[in-house]
């Protein structure tokens, strides 16, 4: 089977957030879809290993911040490549409360849900959420999964439902020979990688220069 066919399916890039005993937490997700319009219901696929998964199980509520093409890429690194069990992710971003749920300010829209049901798989839980609030924040174009891969040049976290283990493509390696060993970001800047300052960090996961690997 050619797993690349899954890249042709349409996905967005979102931050799913909830509460951890009074502390805001969340993670990146890309498998979210509307199930019904009346009553408005959406489905969110969450890996069992994600700390956010257990927090949603406890609170029975979650919010979805819809990232735009103009959203800071470091948001994906903060929420996609760190664990909320070890890091207070919301210390690094601005957010506000919508229906008492934490929502990123750097997004183009948000949805707040109450969990009404769930479907279990071997690795993921699909939470069904009844929408209690939602609104547009601005008119920026939403970030798609394809845009994240092709333009931002990021890779999926291993806990993502759409994760496919892959190496940098030949085209990427031809343009840039250094790849982040944490998130898979391919450096393609005009300045040779060797000449970057020692304090350079990956724009996606904020890891130091030393984690980059020469391909």
From TrEMBL:
Keyword vocabulary terms for this entry: Electron transport, Iron, Metal-binding, Oxidoreductase, Transport
Record-linked SUPFAM superfamilies: FMN-binding split barrel (SSF50475), Rubredoxin-like (SSF57802)
PROSITE patterns: RUBREDOXIN_LIKE
GO molecular function: FMN binding; iron ion binding; riboflavin reductase (NADPH) activity
Domain of life: Bacteria
Keyword Repeat included in the entry's annotation: no
Entry-linked InterPro entries: Flavin_Rdtase-like_dom (IPR002563), NADH-dep_flavin_reductase (IPR050268), Rubredoxin-like_dom (IPR024934), Rubredoxin_dom (IPR024935), Split_barrel_FMN-bd (IPR012349)
Keyword Metal-binding recorded: yes
Residues annotated as domain Rubredoxin-like: 175-215
PANTHER family, alphabetized: FLAVIN REDUCTASE (PTHR30466), FMN REDUCTASE (NADH) RUTF (PTHR30466:SF1)
Full protein name: Flavin reductase
Organism of origin: Velocimicrobium porci
